[in-house]
Structures
1.
Amino acid sequence: MPDNKRPYVICHMLPSVDGRIVTRDWDLKNATREYEATAATFDADAWIIGRISMEPYAGKARVPARKNRERIAREDFVAPHDATSYAIAIDPSGKLRWTANDIDGEHVITILTESVSDDYLAFLQSRSVSYLFGGKSRIDLARVLRKLRARFGIETLLLEGGGKINGSFLAADLIDELSVLVAPVADGSIGTPALFDAKEGRGPARPLKLTGVEKLKGGVVWLRYKVKR
Ligand SMILES: NC(=O)c1ccc[n+]([C@@H]2O[C@H](COP(=O)([O-])OP(=O)(O)OC[C@H]3O[C@@H](n4cnc5c(N)ncnc54)[C@H](OP(=O)(O)O)[C@@H]3O)[C@@H](O)[C@H]2O)c1
């Protein structure tokens, strides 16, 4: 039974056959094209990724020190925007240095903890980047999802990596569906991010129900699952 207080969450990823996800050395242009094309079929309202995966999209703006030392309240900030879709980052300590408040027309929302600096909040406000607080010192993902639905009307959300954020969603049992494009590559690296990096040792091991298998261009296989509850 879908929880209509939070978005429906589809984890959409492009791993190697051995479940690795750092695509840098793979040289598989078709696979990336298929990844984008299949993502579009979900008609999602937003996508969400971890701070590390967001680094290349955010930019390298300078965060100025404020002259005014007045404390900024830890209240959610919704910047004026007319976008209807959203690019969301989980950035607990405020490391992303946004140069713009959109990615290809999708409005940026960043998820913070209350431990971020006032200078950083002032920087986000000056750049019209929206932010939501996910907790005092750690992020409560269930709370974040409820806020994304209530404040921005997000009903379908693509969770697009990396391994740490996917692992946290899996551990919190907040993934409804899994959409995996298996790239025709055996990566073989040890200790690089994998599809789900939830915890050391035994993981949450959630059972899945297979709902689709499709062969795509370039030897990519599209697997779809529902998470069993
Ligand atoms: N093949 C694919 O489909 C695909 C898709 C996406 C990404 N990737 C690759 O994945 C790699 C990055 O994966 P990754 O696992 O290292 O990083 P990640 O999941 O992108 O980001 C991890 C960081 O995000 C923040 N974060 C994530 N979940 C959090 C939570 N529940 N609570 C608090 N903070 C949280 C933390 O930031 P702080 O460190 O600031 O605390 C954490 O270190 C990159 O190489 C990227 O290219 C591949």
2.
Amino acid sequence: MCAPVGWGIVPTNHELRLYNSLGRRMEDFTPAAAVAGLYSCGPTVYAYPHLGNMRAYVFADTLRRVLRWKAIPVRHVVNITDVGHAVADTETGEDKMEVAAARERRSVMDIAAYYTDVFLVDTAALNILPAAEYPRASTYVEPMIEFAKKLDKDGFTYQLPSGLYFDTAKDPGYGELALMSTEGQLEAARLEHVEGRRRKTDFALWRAEEPGQRRVLRWDSPWGWGAPGWHLECSVMSMALLGQHFDLHTGGVDHRELHHVNEIAQSQAFLGDGRPWVRYWLHGEFLQLGAHKMAKSAGGAPRLADLTEAGYHPMAYRLFLLGGHYRSQLDFTTAAIDAAQATLRRLVARVQPLRPLPPVETLADARQLTEGNPAAQRLLDTIDAAAAADLGTPKILAALQDALREASLTPEGQRAVVAAADALLGLGLASLDPADLEHRRALTDLSAAEKQAIEELVADRTQARKERDWDRADQIRAELDELGVDLTDTPEGPVWQLR
Ligand SMILES: [Zn+2]
């Protein structure tokens, strides 16, 4: 509840509430120890991360920023999967890393290093706060084997020629996170057939090499040469770096039904202390491209570099994401990213005369700056309420816009509220250069020769279409696209503009 804010009244400190996927309900958040432990399932570094992948990390970053705002210290770990993740998230079959290495004719380690760098470059461009640790799965295989050995010794496993399997029948709470019923278990699991597997929900802790198929990355284990199962790494690395129990675990909503279910099963079996392994599970929704969710396997999904090459600023993409709540699906369209860039341009134009902005990270910082300024405190209270209510970024954005329009706010009040909103949004409003946000080239920027070359290509394409040479027409359209030219066919003939 919001207390009236003004002279002599201590403003409300809104209790942080988060939507816990475990139980599907809003819950008050209080960390178990002085420093909250946060683990986010990281990328499998076998291909370029696309825009949909990056949404999960902007969401985790928003959580980081809200915890900081509430003066809750946090230790954040994001893993790098460079081994063990089979194509199509299945239990058997080829490893994504090895398929990528063969495709690109490079070593698995080269592939991992290259795509890890790309991931870190993209996170930096999106102003995502760096994690404390980025552990690589391939460097934790020994502790993974020890972990699996304990499960084996305690009777949670069985062995098949294809590897060591976790026996989900031994876990009465299996599937709680996914709201999977015992009867529904068969439907909930992927339909891959694994020879000898007792239940479809049972999953590999260790994937043994198939006879005659030597893996590139291979380790010796009590269950033969092979590699760890994909789910194992997150349990082992998170416990190694955050302690056996920690506060928060995040990931994309697709992880809620399988990967995280299996992480919980094996971790709670391993710990055997009757306590929930991790208390809060938060899941970010998908980004939709047209009618399709952008999963990792969606070939050709746009990446951040595609946006920047087309003249969009990475912060326009961040703003677009924050304009939706992390638990809502978002549709990525050209119109939406155009609108985000335009909004960002307007924001920066309004913020620029207020610079320099004061340094603000926490609610307490912002409170200090707005003392004796009721109008600013009222907006601050709105921002705090929005942040505390399950990371309500759309409302924080709205409060930011209000602050810049509010006639009754002094420049000091505006500075404080803008800095407070941006501590949570991370758009870099203190320093963004308006010149970087101008992306549409004007026709007048073209030289006469450039313009003539474009006109000629458009005319050639019209001719090709008349001759029904569709391949040629498509090829010319692609060339125009490369040049940043948008072409539209109208009844009066083709019209073009620069992007
Ligand atoms: Zn994970």
